[in-house]
């Protein structure tokens, strides 16, 4: 067991130490931006647990209730406390961020199943299944290329295109911009 899991534990330990270091840096900073406050909350949860982070998530939500990640993490934290108010936040996360659909649906489904509210839980299962179907179709579309596929070139106005070329030319390591 030890030899099989040693590498995984080492990676976890290094990641945890990195999280602690980032957390300390953010705690020492003054006037954090909204995204930094959210990162502080997430790192606090990773290092000290959800109970330590919930007040930070609430503050982030007060500052920006339209942030999908904040809605997701606060919703998850409230469900962890057996608070049904977390469901509304997960619903909001689903609306605000496509990437939150499946994890939000999974959390809500399990929470409602645990409460014995199977009918309402099935709605979240349907959300998950719908998104899963979309994900599979998108993956299939991206993985298949037919030599007869046609691609349309984006028509840019010359002035913004020239500015972009100048910007790309100024980046070290970017060579060979075709005009």
- How much strand content do the residues show? under 5%
Low-confidence segments, given as residue ranges, are none
Give the class from helix and strand content and strand pairing: mainly alpha
Helix and strand element order: HHHHHHHH
Number of DSSP-assigned strands: 0
The helical percent reads: over 70%
Mean pLDDT: 90
* Rg over alpha carbons: 22 Å
How would the global form be characterised?
extended
Main beta sheet: strand number and arrangement? none
**Helical segment tally?**
8
Separation, N- and C-terminal Cα atoms: 58 Å
What key phrases describe this protein's structure?
single chain; mainly alpha; extended; 179 residues; 0% strand; 75% helix
List the helices and strands and how they pair.
Layout: H1 2-28, H2 34-48, H3 50-63, H4 68-80, H5 85-96, H6 101-115, H7 118-143, H8 158-170
Helix pairs in contact: 1-2, 2-3, 3-4, 4-5, 5-6, 6-7
Describe, in plain words, how this protein is organized in 3D.
Helix 6 runs antiparallel to helix 7. This protein has eight helices and no strands. The longest helix has 27 residues. With 179 residues, the chain is mainly α. Helix content is 75%, strand content 0%. It is extended, with a radius of gyration of 22 Å. The mean pLDDT is 90.
